[in-house]
């Protein structure tokens, strides 16, 4: 549904995007993760037909964003970073205006439906200027959903919301994302981890990683580490576990030991059995996950270091 | 064209809840009523003034030069400031449809005001015998519609240039005043001064249309000026995509 090929964008001399390529399938929720200024909004603006790339091409919902910009815009729902509302219009008037520009059939009913979908039906007649930040965000989302778009592009959809609203909006995105393509940007790592099927990590206009959140974690973890705590002292425990087949490394950590096994193989049952057979009291046994956060920091840090060393060598 | 009509209708309705639109309309009618009362009360009885339906039109033109850019300054500048332009430009609407829709909405509102100014000639017609020259009045009003259309289009262009309404207003008044002053350079018969006289925005009005000479050339001038301004405004809006 989204195919971007070698997209570059310059603002004057500043290169905001550097030859990025990626794609997204139908039914996929693609997360766009990166620090501020990484090129997320620029990419989204290109995909929505707001502005053309300096070079490269993109096909969205089967149409080229430069050649068939209008056709692309018909099929895309877009929530910009700052939710664009007309303060003098009521929520219903606003959606009716946008819906008529998008030629939504049976508009009156559709506006009512979409308002209740985002939980704004009781504020249908409120002026958009009087809505709270969270409600404005939801109205923006309603505007993006109004015309049943095949592709939904959301620029930081949960920014400025309180925790309860964030959960609501995430649920909503998951719900609407089941039968269309959703691309959303965020710099909240746990958010990408929770709602996205696939994550693109972008920094300084370049894509550093493109994979599922789980694979990204696994990739960084190398092998999975398992934290074990028993009533015995760590030294005895480390000795016991270190002799087990399939255990590659045992590290003593605060309160217990961390055991790593071969990649892709779960050694937890083995560990549990060995501990019980040795008649030790098992208190805790869990996989200590590498968070997406550390993946992200490591990738962007590597990139920045490389740039720094390149500059130094020049 | 349907998108244009939708945007025009929204902008037209927007004027009726806009304080600036009401302030502009109030200035126009206060100025005209003042002039009208002075003319009726002093000009006519002393014979300094003959009964003429156009007696309010000269002050109206002057007030419009200062007021029309206030009606248009919001149209594109505010959309840029609030970020709603991004919304319009990612809707399946062409840039020129947005620009023309905005201009049509403002033209609609100004035509309502213009219709309101008809009250003065009607009153004069009632109280004079044999009445006023209605043909001349009609020509003057048709010309005024052309002049207003062109001034609004210039205002829309000025509004496309800035994200600040104040800057858009100053630029709009500046361009219109410039085109007025150019027309004052009539001295000499050089090609330059003739060209200057041609581009004088008020010359076409006062030389012909106001005098009852309904010349197609003058209307074409206003139409061209309107088209050029709206074209430039569309180009400016489109250029935002390339920055």
Structure, explained:
The complex is a heterodimer of chains A (314) and B (243). The two termini of chain A are 41 Å apart. The longest helix of chain A is centred in the last third of the chain and has 22 residues, at 292-313. With 314 residues, chain A is α/β, with parallel strands linked by helices. Chain A has helices at residues 40-47, 69-75, 91-101, 107-117, 133-145, 163-176, 189-195, 213-221, 234-242, 268-277, 292-313, and strands at 2-11, 14-24, 29-33, 55-60, 63-64, 76-79, 151-155, 181-186, 198-203, 206-211, 225-230, 249-253, 256-260, 282-288. Chain A has two domains: 2-211, P-loop containing nucleotide triphosphate hydrolases (Rossmann fold), CATH 3.40.50.300; 222-314, Alpha-Beta Plaits. The mean pLDDT of chain A is 85. In chain A, strand 12 and strand 13 form a beta hairpin. Chain B contains eleven helices and no strands. In chain B, helix 3 (57-82) packs parallel to helix 7 and helix 5 (95-116) packs across helix 11. The radius of gyration of chain B is 19 Å and the shape is globular. Chain B is 78% helix and 0% strand. The mean pLDDT of chain B is 89. The chains are: A alpha/beta (314), B mainly alpha (243). The interface between A and B is medium-sized, with 26 and 24 residues.
């Amino acid at each position: 549904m989204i195919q971007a090929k070698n997209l570059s964008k310059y603002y004057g001399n500043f290169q905001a995007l550097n030859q990025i390529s990626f794609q997204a399938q139908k039914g996929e929720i693609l997360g766009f993760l990166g620090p501020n200024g990484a090129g997320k909004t620029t990419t989204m603006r290109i995909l929505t037909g707001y502005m053309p790339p300096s070079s490269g091409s993109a096909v969205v919902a089967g149409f080229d964003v430069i050649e068939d910009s209008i056709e692309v815009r018909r099929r895309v729902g877009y929530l910009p970073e700052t939710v664009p509302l007309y303060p003098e219009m009521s929520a219903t008037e606003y959606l009716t205006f946008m819906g008529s520009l998008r030629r939504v059939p049976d508009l009156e009913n559709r506006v009512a439906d979409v308002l209740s979908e985002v939980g704004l039906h009781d504020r249908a007649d409120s002026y958009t200027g009087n809505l709270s930040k969270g409600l404005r965000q939801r109205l923006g989302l309603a505007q993006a959903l109004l015309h049943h778009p095949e592709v939904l592009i959301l620029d930081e959809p949960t920014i400025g919301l309180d925790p309860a609203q964030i959960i609501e909006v995430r649920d909503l995105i998951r719900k609407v994302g089941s039968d269309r393509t959703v691309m959303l940007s965020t710099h909240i790592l746990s958010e990408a981890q929770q709602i996205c099927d696939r994550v693109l990590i972008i920094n300084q206009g370049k894509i550093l990683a493109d994979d599922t959140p789980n694979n990204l974690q696994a990739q960084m973890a190398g092998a999975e580490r398992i934290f074990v705590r028993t009533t015995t002292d760590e030294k005895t425990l480390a000795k016991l576990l270190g002799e087990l087949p399939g255990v590659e490394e045992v590290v003593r950590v605060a309160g217990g030991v961390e055991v790593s096994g071969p990649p892709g193989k779960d050694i937890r049952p083995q560990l549990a059995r060995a501990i019980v057979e040795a008649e030790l009291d098992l208190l805790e046994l869990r996989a200590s996950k590498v968070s997406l956060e550390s993946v992200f920091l490591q990738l962007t840090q590597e990139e920045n270091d490389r740039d720094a060393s390149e500059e130094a060598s020049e | 064209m349907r998108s244009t009509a939708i945007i025009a209708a929204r902008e037209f309705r927007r004027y009726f809840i806009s304080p600036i639109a009401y302030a502009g309309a109030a200035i126009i009618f206060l100025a005209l009523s003042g002039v009208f009362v002075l003319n009726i009360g002093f000009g006519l009885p002393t014979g300094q003034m003959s009964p003429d339906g156009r007696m309010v039109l000269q002050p109206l033109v002057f007030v419009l030069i200062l007021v029309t850019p206030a009606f248009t300054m919001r149209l594109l500048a505010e959309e840029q400031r609030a970020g709603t332009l991004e919304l319009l430009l990612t809707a399946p609407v062409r840039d020129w449809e947005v620009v023309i829709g905005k201009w049509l909405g403002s033209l609609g509102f100004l035509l309502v005001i213009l219709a309101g100014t008809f009250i003065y000639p009607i009153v004069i017609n009632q109280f004079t015998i044999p009445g006023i020259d209605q043909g001349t009045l009609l020509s003057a009003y048709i010309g005024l519609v052309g002049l207003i259309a062109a001034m609004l289009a210039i205002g829309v262009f000025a509004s496309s240039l800035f994200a600040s309404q104040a800057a858009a207003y100053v630029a709009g008044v500046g361009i219109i005043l410039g085109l007025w002053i150019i027309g004052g350079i009539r001295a000499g018969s050089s090609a330059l001064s003739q060209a200057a006289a041609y581009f004088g925005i008020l010359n076409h009005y006062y030389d012909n249309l106001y005098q009852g000479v309904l010349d197609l050339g003058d209307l074409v001038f206003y139409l061209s000026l309107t088209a050029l301004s709206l074209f430039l405004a569309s180009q400016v809006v489109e250029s935002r995509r390339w920055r």
